[in-house]
Amino acid sequence: MAMKIRLSRGGSKKRPFYSIVAADSRMPRDGRFIEKLGTYNPLLPKDSEDRVKMNVERIQHWMDHGAQPSDRVARFLENAGVLDKKERSNPKKGTPGQKAQDRAEEKAEKAKAAAEAANAPAEEAPAEETASEEATEE
Question: How far apart are CA 30 and CA 41, in angstroms?
Fold first, then answer.
């Protein structure tokens, strides 16, 4: 039996409250579980002690028997010092989306065209001055 330590959602609409449970991985998220191991209330401030409550001894017991924590529960356990922090790699996190990239390209093209336009009249300006000087002399 593949065991998971994961979150089970409770609470009302738009007011989530999660229980940390040990459950068979084949059971639904909010379905049958074997043991309740703690709670997580995301509505509380991050520095609140009541935000995450876990029975670390029981979690360790289940992990010794082969239970795998979900990603979110693993982060809770890392913060509690039960698990070692693992390296996470998300190289695409900082890159903008396709539309933002297109807008940046358009902006760069406009800036380049404006720079070329600013440089071009500066070169032609002396020629215009000489033509206007000849007109004033006559």
Answer: 16
CB 59, CB 74: distance < 8 Å = no
**pTM for this prediction:** 0.63
Identify the CA nearest to 62 among candidates 20, 115, 120: 20
Q: What are the contacts of 106-111 at 24+ separation with CB within 8 A?
A: none
- Tell me the residue type at 130: T
Cβ neighbours for 35, distance < 8 A, ≥ 6 positions apart? 21, 22, 58, 62
pLDDT digits (tens, 9 = 90+) for 89-101: 777 778 888 999 9
Nearest alpha-carbon partner for 1 in 26, 33, 32: 26
